[in-house]
Protein: Phosphohydrolase
Amino acid sequence: MPAQPAERRAWQAVDPGQLLLVSAAVLLVIGALTQVAASGLRQPNIAVVFGVLIALGELFRMVMPGNREVAPIATAGAVGYALLAGVGPRGAPRDAPFGGVPATHSALQVVAVT
Structure:
């Protein structure tokens, strides 16, 4: 009997909890992309800037001890977009929180952009 490829053995070693978590993440991403495609991007210039920052951060990955790869610039960009409360003072009403235009993107848009 021939030996099975390593990829197949690794897939069989995935436990059900991990498979459930990956499936839920895939469904969340599909739902986020569908929602953004249907309703369009809110504040698209901000979404594009953060998307480009995340993509550039992924290009400049670092290898840490133990052969682990990390992307601190991409991570900082993703967290920054998720926590963005307001954008710039130009065009903001006088009583605007943080002195800027409130960010109007949804959580699903954050998932789709990041």
In short: The chain has a mean pLDDT of 87. The chain has one domain: 6-113. The longest strand covers residues 62-64. Residues 6-113 form one domain.
